[in-house]
Amino acid sequence: MSIVLDPALTGTYVLDPSHSRLGFVARHAMVTKVRGFFEKYEGTGFLDFSAPEKSTAKVTVDVASVNTGNEQRDGHLRANDFFDAPSFPQITFESTGAKVIDETTFELTGDLTIKGVTKPVTVEFEYTGTATDPFGNLRAGFEGKTVINRKDWGVNWNAALETGGVLVSEKVTLEFDVSAIKQADA
């Protein structure tokens, strides 16, 4: 499915949390991967299907909603060792630019703020299409990911392993499966 240059699709879109996933993957004990996601977030974007490079996005994530399927680990992730949710209750992303790579791929660059530290990141997204759902909502779909070093945002906790290496990888893959609903023109 290529990016359709159709002005009728252009407009403001809102992230649909019940049909989207904002997740992450980190290596644990150097041998396996732990996957998690955030249960609560909101996001809006202006998708310009005439000139995709003019598209924008803003996402706010509730840090306390982190879920890896293990309550003890989730509690540790919410603590100061990792996200420090009481002091920094939100992770935010605000785009600063968009670039079309090919028929289905584009890059969204923006400022990611975690634990009060803001750094630029670029996320490569694949446009998966648009469709009108049974309720008359126009939806746009995207899948994306990027790799960050968590220490760049002050998420530094770790433990050395007896066999060498560390308990938690510094590199974390951020994953995005997005369904966004076009809003009625104001």
From TrEMBL:
Residues 12-181 form the Lipid/polyisoprenoid-binding YceI-like domain. Gene3D superfamilies: Lipid/polyisoprenoid-binding, YceI-like (2.40.128.110). Belongs to the UPF0312 family. Pfam families: YceI. It comes from Actinorhabdospora filicis. This is Polyisoprenoid-binding protein. Transmembrane segments: none annotated.
